Every structure is written in structure tokens, then in C-alpha cells.
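so my prof wants the structure for this chain in the C-alpha cells format not the other one, which i didnt know existed until like an hour ago. anyway here's the sequence
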Amino acid sequence: MKRATVCFDESLHRALKLRSVESATTLSDFVNEAVKDALAEDLETFRKRESEP
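here's what i got, hopefully its the right format
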């Protein structure tokens, strides 16, 4: 897993923290899953193209 620094405005950070607590996960895992969900189609296309010459 790679690390990245992401800056959120305060209200968004607060909401993310609350949602991660509600789902009994870390903030990092919660954001990681949200990004995966948001990019699901793009990730699938990328994986298919990885094997292209």
C-alpha cells in the first residue's frame, strides 16, 4: 500500500471521521474504500489494459 497526503476541509474531515467510526473502521480504510467505489469502472479498465503490449 502507498501513502499519500490528502487535505480535507474541516467539515468534510469531521464527516469522514464520524462515518468511519460508525462503520467501525479506520479513517484511512474508510477513505480507501470510498475512492475504490468511486473509481470502480476506471480501475477495471486499467486492470484490463495492464496486460496490453
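also thought this was worth mentioning. The chain has a mean pLDDT of 89.
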